TrEMBL record:
Boundaries of every ABC transporter domain copy: 7-258
Family stated for the protein in its record: Belongs to the ABC transporter superfamily.
PROSITE patterns: ABC_TRANSPORTER_1, ABC_TRANSPORTER_2
Gene3D superfamilies listed in its UniProt record: P-loop containing nucleotide triphosphate hydrolases
Keyword Nucleotide-binding attached: yes
PANTHER family the UniProt entry points to: D,D-DIPEPTIDE TRANSPORT ATP-BINDING PROTEIN DDPF-RELATED (PTHR43776:SF7), TRANSPORT ATP-BINDING PROTEIN (PTHR43776)
Biological source species: Terrabacter terrae
Name of protein: ABC transporter domain-containing protein
Length: 296
């Protein structure tokens, strides 16, 4: 089995020009949104990229998906450099990497039916929907938990959670190996978030693809991530497997983020209290074993 990561980004930098007075771009002035970011995503895993708004995580997602160009650095997919792809080569790459965006309503064309939205990536690739457009659309709708009889409806006729399922169906249409979820559940109600997270996990088990999951909500991240990378100020300040980052954070910024997570899930709070009690017991053990304490 190949050990080559599905995605490998090395020393990514993205700078944007800074506008001066009057809205005019000032020559030579730039803002560095992403600063020397390196990350890898293995086959079948979920890497969560987390941080506050403005930390650079969504810009990083767009860089690795080749939605925007890098200022410097390298993006490799399955070991091949895709940083400078264009034309047909870029089309082929986008068959392998799809994006689910934050706001389903703004990312879906309101004038298009579900059929046209879901089949658009295939048509963009110059491919015909297998089994015909209607059958293909209805099959994908069933897979993401939508009523296939609504294949001719428009996005505005669906709830937010349902519209996001359409976005997921569109991403699945070309059979990607990597799905980038850019704050894909942050605009949804908590109960709907859980439904979409469960759907994403189920699809990953069935298809074996990888996720780069962009989020600021650590409660959501813990439900889906295999590994976690924490971003602040355009840089990754901490990275590791999920439980290590959550249970033993090394960076002060990570500890601050975790401290802001509401303790609303009983199983998490119980586990946290158990770990705290175990640490306290270890610290007290020498004192409890002393003659004065045991009565010897």
């Amino acid at each position: 089995m190949s050990t080559t990561p599905v995605l490998q980004a090395e020393h990514l930098v993205k700078e944007f020009p800074v506008a001066g007075s009057g809205g005019l771009v000032t020559r030579g002035r730039t803002f560095r949104a992403v600063d020397d970011v390196s990350l890898t995503v293995a086959a079948g895993e979920t890497l969560a990229l987390v941080g506050e708004s403005g930390s650079g995580k969504s810009t990083t997602a767009r860089l690795v998906a080749r939605l925007i160009d890098v200022t410097s650095g390298t993006v490799r997919f399955d070991g091949q450099d895709v940083t400078g792809l264009s034309g047909r080569d870029l089309h082929a790459f986008r068959r392998e990497v799809q994006v689910v965006f934050q706001d389903p309503y703004s990312s879906l064309n309101p004038r298009h039916t579900v059929e046209r939205i879901v089949t658009a990536p295939l048509l963009y690739q110059g491919r015909k929907p297998p089994g015909g457009s209607k059958r293909f659309t209805q099959s994908l709708m069933e897979r993401v938990g939508l009523d296939p009889n609504q294949w001719q409806r428009h996005p505005a006729q669906f709830s937010g959670g349902q519209a996001q399922r359409i976005g997921i169906a569109r991403a699945l249409a070309v059979g990607p190996r990597l799905v980038v979820c850019d704050e894909a559940v942050s605009a949804l109600d908590v109960s709907v978030q859980a439904q979409i997270i469960n759907l994403l996990r189920e699809l990953q088990r069935e298809e074996g693809f990888s996720y780069l999951f962009i989020a600021h909500d650590l409660a959501v991240v813990r439900q889906i991530a295999t590994r976690v990378a924490v971003m602040s100020g355009g840089r990754i300040v901490e990275a590791g497997d999920r439980d290590s980052v959550f249970d033993h954070p090394q960076h002060e910024y990570t500890r601050t983020l975790l401290g802001a997570v509401p303790r609303i899930r009983p199983e998490w709070e119980a586990a946290r209290r158990t770990r705290a009690a175990e640490r306290l017991a270890v610290r007290r053990e020498p004192l409890d074993a002393s003659p004065a304490r045991t009565g010897a």
